[in-house]
Amino acid sequence: MGIFLNHGDGTFASQVTYPVPRGPMSIAAGDFDGDGNLDLAVADFYAADGRGSVTLLRGKGDGTFAVAGSIVVGPNPVSIVAADFDGDGKPDLAVAENGGGTGETITVHRNLGGFRFASPDRYVVGHIPNVVAVADMDGDGKPDILVATAERIVVLLNHGAGSFVPAQ
Ligand SMILES: [Ca+2]
Ligand SMILES: [Ca+2]
Ligand SMILES: [Ca+2]
Fold first, then answer.
1. Most CB contacts within 10 A, which of 47, 87, 127, 134?
2. Are 59 and 40 in contact (CB under 8 A)?
3. d(CA 31, ligand 1 centre) in Å
4. Is 61 within 8 Å of 85 (Cβ atoms)?
């Protein structure tokens, strides 16, 4: 994974790279540990044992990062977003997993602080979820999840406390 720091004048510094497990596929930023510095969550498409993982990188506040941990997700994560789904002030994660036909799901990981995340809630959304995005689709102030699958767009409405129900 490479990061290009923006000089603020439209130019970028030389790339700084960080090792992450095989196949970094998607990246989300958020202050996961609440120290005021933006951190990163990287979805690793080819993790060990056929399972996917998300590598957590702690932002040091000067544009550099250090690996802070990882969380296990479903096979072949392809897309990740960060948003405070349960409204506790800590950014949570939603991950789309292609799964090679075994688990084509969205997993929602609630942030417990200190780069720890709760066991995920899983939502089956259909064939090949490719992209996950966040928007407040029903205007209730709670971030909802949109998923583009191979066949359709799925909207998961946030019913609070980080639980979701598919929109009909
Ligand atoms: Ca942080
Ligand atoms: Ca949260
Ligand atoms: Ca909403």
1. 47
2. yes
3. 4
4. no
